[in-house]
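Re: that chain you flagged

S.,

Sorry for the slow reply, it's been a week of failed gels. I finally had a moment to sit down with the sequence you sent. For the record, here it is as I used it:
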Amino acid sequence: MTETLHLVGDPEADRILTEHPFALLTGMLLDQQIPMEVAFDGPRKIQERLGSIDPATIAQTDPEEFIALCAATPAVHRFPSSMGQRVHDLAAAVVEDWDGDTERIWTEGDPDGKEVLKRLKALPGFGDQKAKIFLALLGKQRGLDADGWRTAAGDYGKDGVHMSIADVTSADSLTKVRAYKKEKKAAAKAAKG
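Prediction finished late last night. Pasting the structure tokens below so you have them in one place:
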């Protein structure tokens, strides 16, 4: 397990992600259509503005107030209304389904990788790819040793790759992941013709 995550490159943001499982889950939720380190810095902004990154606190906050908090400059996401609502929905789901204990998603009942993936995909805002990347992040950097997690995470679970946030451990690895994503985007664009 990586002792301190290095996903943002800001010591305070990375500390929050390391110490608060819901912050890490929220960063993954926010990781779309913005740079990875901006997405994973979102939980720090929420913590500073709300005073907490606890799912129960977020879920108990009026949704409109929470969205306004997410929209304050600098915004938590480039789409603060929709993503603020998604974070609020995610917090409510963690409270309702997991008694507010985010880690139970991947620890309760000693689940295998396939079950953890299923649980992640059941969360608001987590499709197949996002769930696989987060599963790989848990396995590669947070000490998850569930049987079959690498298989369940697909290519994201492979060793020695630089495909996603799961592989970011330094500024150098962030550059490699960025290059991989740029290459994939260019290949997809070329395939469209």
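What I noticed first: The CA atoms of residues 4 and 26 lie 17 Å apart.

Talk soon,
D.
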